[in-house]
Amino acid sequence: MKRKEVEVLEDILGSNIRAAAELKRRLLDRGVLAVNLMSSPGAGKTTLLERLAERLSPRYRLAVIEGDIETERDAERIRAKGIPAWQIQTGGACHLEAKMIGRLFPQLPAELDFLFIENVGNLVCPAGYDLGESLRCLLLSTPEGDDKPKKYPKAFRTAQCLILSKTDLLGLLPFDPEQAKKEALEVNPHLEIFLVSPLTGAGLEDFIAYLLRQRQKLTGRHA
Amino acid sequence: MKRKEVEVLEDILGSNIRAAAELKRRLLDRGVLAVNLMSSPGAGKTTLLERLAERLSPRYRLAVIEGDIETERDAERIRAKGIPAWQIQTGGACHLEAKMIGRLFPQLPAELDFLFIENVGNLVCPAGYDLGESLRCLLLSTPEGDDKPKKYPKAFRTAQCLILSKTDLLGLLPFDPEQAKKEALEVNPHLEIFLVSPLTGAGLEDFIAYLLRQRQKLTGRHA
After folding, report:
1. How far is A176 from chain B (nearest CA, A)?
2. Are the Cβ atoms of B41 and A42 closer than 8 angstroms?
3. Do B68 and A151 touch (CB under 8 A)?
4. Is A169–B143 a contact, with Cβ atoms under 8 angstroms apart?
5. Which of A31, A50, A80, B115 could form a cystine bridge with B34, CB 3.0-4.6 A?
C-alpha cells in the first residue's frame, strides 16, 4: 500500500475505534447488551432475529438495526414481529461502522434490554469494524461448508460466539459439524459455539440462555 | 467521504481499470477466455470448477487462479483434478485486483483455452474490480435465499451470467427459482441464467455450451 493509502486507512479505523468505544460505554450504561451479528449473505441472520423476537419479547425489550447495501426488506421483517427496527442502507459499503449506529442512538427506546445489529452479509470486511457491541456473534451456515474458519479467520478470531446455522440441513450436505467446531476453535479457542436452526428454532434455548447470562454479566442487570 | 479518502479510492480504482484493460487484451490475443467467478462464501465455486475440469479437460486446456483470504485449499482441490492452479492469498483484502492476476500472467501455459479466476467469497467488494476477464459469472446458491439480487445489486448488475447454484437442495429450502430469476433480471435484464448443481453436475451442459459459444465469439477461435 502507498503511504497516502495507509494514512487514510488508519484515519478511518482510528476514528471508528473511538466512536465504538464511546457507543459501547453509553449502551452498557443504559443496561443494553448490543450484539453484532455477522455472516455471509443468506446464513440466517434475519430469520434468527425473527425467532429471538418471538421468544424474548415482550418479557425483554428488543430493538434491531439492520445493515444492507440496498432495500428495507430486513427491517420490515423485524417490524412485522412488533420489534422497533431501523434499516441502514450503506449504498455500496461492505460493512457497518460505529458512527452509523451512533447516529441512531438518540432514536432508541429509553427502556431497552437488547440491541441486535445485523451487519451487511459479508464474512470479510465487517470483522474490521467494532460497532460498539459488547458481543459479536458469527453465523456459519451448514451449506457454506466446514472449511470456512481458516479461509476467513479474522471473522472467527474477533467473535465471542459462533452459531452453526441451518442445522435442519445437516445430513443433506457435505458438512461435518465436529470438523467445523474443531477448526473454529483452532482459530479462536474462546468461541462459545451453538448449533441452531433459525428456520425451525431448534437449538435456540442454549443460545438464549447464553445471551441472558452475557447481559447480566456485562450490564450487571437482571431480567 | 473526506477529500483525501476520495482521492485514494480514485487512484486505486483508476489503476485497476488500466491494469484490467491491458490484461484483457493480452488474454484475448492468446485466445484465452478469462472467466471471473464471484459469489458469497460456500456457494459452490470450487466444486463447479472441479466439475468443469472433469468435463472440459483434456479436450480444452484450463488453468485456474484461486483467491482466498488465507489457505491454499482451493488450489489444491483443483490441482488434484490435473489442472494447473495458483492460489492468491489476499491476507485480509476482500477481493482480487487485476495486478494480482497480471503478476501470474507469465506463468500461464502458452496454450490455454480457459482461465477461471475464483474470486474471494464475497458478494460485495469483488464487483468493483475488473480482473481482465471477458466474462463475469455470479453464483447465487439456493440456501442464500431468492431475495439477494436487490440486496446486493452491483454484483448482479456487473455480471454477464448468473448460476443459480445448489439446485439439488431445491424443495428443501424456502427458495423460489422463478422469483430469483425475476428479481435478478429486474436488476440486470441482460443476464444469462443457468440452474446448476455443482455437487451432482446437473444442469452443467447448458452452462458449458454457453462458455464454448462465448469463447468462440470473444476470441474468434474454435475448439
Report:
1. 14
2. no
3. yes
4. yes
5. B115
Contacts of B113 (CB under 8 A, 6+ apart): B31, B32, B33, B60, B61, B62, B215
> Does any CB of chain A come closer than 8 Å to the CB of residue B147?
yes
- Interface confidence (ipTM) of the complex: 0.91
Nearest-angstrom CA–CA distance, A80 and A213: 27
Residue showing cell 435484464: B189
Residue written as grid cell 480444452: B60
Residue pair B116/B52 in contact (Cβ under 8 Å)? The answer is yes
Q: How far apart are CA B126 and CA B128, in angstroms?
A: 5
* Interchain contact, A125 vs B124, CB within 8 Å: yes
Residues of A in contact with B172 (CB under 8 A): 169, 172
What digits encode the pLDDT tens for the residues A15-54? 999 999 999 999 999 999 999 999 999 999 999 999 999 9
The three-class DSSP label of residue B109 is coil
Q: Which of A70, A94, A151 sits opposite B150 (nearest CB)?
A: A70
| pTM of model > 0.80 | yes
Question: Mind listing the pLDDT tens digit for each residue in B135-193?
Answer: 999 999 999 999 999 999 999 999 999 999 999 999 999 999 999 999 999 999 999 99
Q: Is the pLDDT of residue B221 over 90?
A: no
* Alpha-carbon A116 to chain mean position: 7
Q: Do A41 and B151 touch (CB under 8 A)?
A: yes
Q: Is B80 left (phi over 0), alpha (psi -120 to 50) or beta?
A: alpha
Q: Max CA-CA distance within chain B? A: 53
Q: Identify the bridge partners of residue A66 per DSSP, sorted by sequence position.
A: A87, A118
Q: What is the pLDDT of residue B223?
A: 60
Hey, is the C-beta of B157 within 8 angstroms of any chain A C-beta? no
Among chain B residues, the shortest Cα distance to A2 is held by: B8
Do residues A69 and B153 make contact, with C-beta atoms less than 8 angstroms apart? Answer: yes
Structure confidence by residue, pLDDT tens digits, A56-87: 999 999 999 999 999 999 999 999 999 999 99
CB contact under 8 A, B42 and A166: no
* Strand ranges across the sheet with A114-118: A85-89, A62-68, A114-118, A33-38, A135-141, A161-165, A192-196
Fold of B3-219: Rossmann fold (3.40.50)
Minimal CA–CA distance to B108: which of B58, B47, B61? B61
In 3D, which of A164, A118, A119, A123 has the Cα closest to residue A140?
A: A164
- Pick from A71, A168, A40, A214: nearest CA to B45: A40
Å between A23 CA and nearest CA of chain B:
21
